[in-house]
Amino acid sequence: MGAHTTPTIADEYASKYVQSRQLHHAARALLPGGITHMARAFDPFPLYIESCVGAHKWDVDGNRYIDYWMGHGAMLLGHAHPAVVEAIREQASRGTHAGGSTRLEIEWARLIMDLVPSAEAVKFTSSGTEATLLALRAARAYTGKRKIIKFEGHFHGWHDYVMCGVIPPYDTPMSAGIPEEVQRSVILVPFNDNAALTQALDSSDDIAAVIAEPGGSYDDTVPANPIFLAHLRQETARRGVVLIFDEVVTGFRYAVGGAQEYFNVIPDLTTLAKVMAGGLNGGAVVGSAEIMKIFEPKADPDWNRYRMVPHPGTFNANPLSAAAGIAALQIIATGEPTKRAQEMAEMLISGINQVLKHRGVPGCAYGRASIFKTFVGAEAPRVTRFDFSHVKEDTRTLMQGPPHAKTLRQGMVLNGVDLMRVAGFVSAAHTAEIIEETVHAFDCTIARMQQEGLLHG
């Protein structure tokens, strides 16, 4: 008989999840690539999820996982929070689309304005992508200028303008099909670089706006330097350039008022989504009342036809999303969910780093608020410790990603934890016991990767 061969992490993943594998085979015949979101692409197949409650989810094969996708960051309260579920159920019984205005949209807007420092007025959209598209259009209309400054490695959705400069090489858009005319209207600037920003702002008198993820590049993969954010606010204000903070990810997580409250840097416009809609689809542009007037119809045909920014959208502030958003934000307004999620994230980051130290594996976990990242298998860049002395070099390293990322995620899944790639979002539903279980799963995964010769230590 031949020698027994222990299956690898990759082998076990490929063979264990039978129904997920079968469903993905069926999906490939119906959906391009077999997926409905590029982040869900996973080799050899993604997990197919049956249900989610609290900090857990269950796949179609009956396996339970501690979840760190948390609805791509939307589920700050955890999955299926009873108050949100009840609000949705109650509203659904009264209808899902009014085809008209509702009291809910007023209450939802008031809550957002109470919580977000920059919000003097609210314009609802159906997604974060729509929100950034609308904010950029409003900035152009308000200033009468055409160009925008966008930072390398920052993700703002999938419309044409923000597809520029997302992943290396930055001179090529993230997607095919982006016209060169669009690319020429976007000025790309390295993030956390004061001199480069100032030079870009001085390069043209036709700049309408600067848009940024205030937490850092690509969902906080490269953390923002607070000194840079203050410089960004000062330089844009001095020139009358509209500053847009994309808080689709950071909103209500960094603080109840988002990253702008956390850093005390207030933009002119803010884009929101995810947490604000309680787990349903919904987004918003909020900001200066003066700029937001660009959306208001007037008794002036010339204004309405040539200077206003009209904003249709079948599902803007739809009653279901509004009900879910109100229920979620009323709880978030207490400050407790944000605080709880942050405490659990700090515990998780500490636990992962202890495992890496114990195992002698280079790398680290890092993050702010309730967003965490891991960089395992190579020396951790200094910026993960919020040391910005080598930020250009560190940015290149972090944007390339750590080695063996796929195997790390597969190993964690096999140990009952589903990371969002090699990172994730912590919710208020995560507990100390859940974090301990996660750290144990991480330890088991790292040990097995060492046994397979993928990590040394």
Itemize the secondary structure elements and their pairings.
Layout: H1 9-16, H2 18-28, E1 49-53, E2 56-59, E3 64-67, H3 82-92, H4 103-115, E4 121-125, H5 128-143, E5 147-151, H6 180-184, E6 186-189, H7 194-202, E7 207-212, H8 217-220, E8 222-223, H9 226-239, E9 242-246, H10 258-263, E10 269-272, E11 283-287, H11 289-292, H12 301-306, H13 319-332, H14 336-359, E12 363-366, E13 371-376, H15 391-400, H16 405-414, E14 417-418, E15 423-425, H17 432-451
Parallel strand pairs: 3-14, 5-6, 5-7, 7-9, 9-10
Antiparallel strand pairs: 1-2, 2-3, 4-11, 10-11, 12-13, 13-15
Helix pairs in contact: 1-16, 3-13, 4-13, 7-9, 14-17, 16-17
Low-confidence stretches: none
Extended strand count: 15
Radius of gyration, CA atoms, in whole angstroms: 23 Å
Oligomer state of the chains in this structure: single chain
Main sheet: strands, sense, barrel: 7 strands, mixed
- Classify the fold: give the CATH topology of the largest domain: Aspartate Aminotransferase, domain 2
User: Spatial order of the strands in the main sheet?
Assistant: 4-11-10-9-7-5-6
Distance between the termini: 34 Å
CATH architecture of the largest domain: 3-Layer(aba) Sandwich
CATH class of the largest domain equals Alpha Beta
Q: What do the pLDDT scores average to?
A: 96
Helix percent reads 40-55%
Helix segment tally:
17
Query: At the fourth CATH level, what is the homologous superfamily of the largest domain?
Result: Type I PLP-dependent aspartate aminotransferase-like (Major domain)
The domain count comes to 2
Structure class: alpha/beta
β-strand percent reads 5-15%
Shape: globular
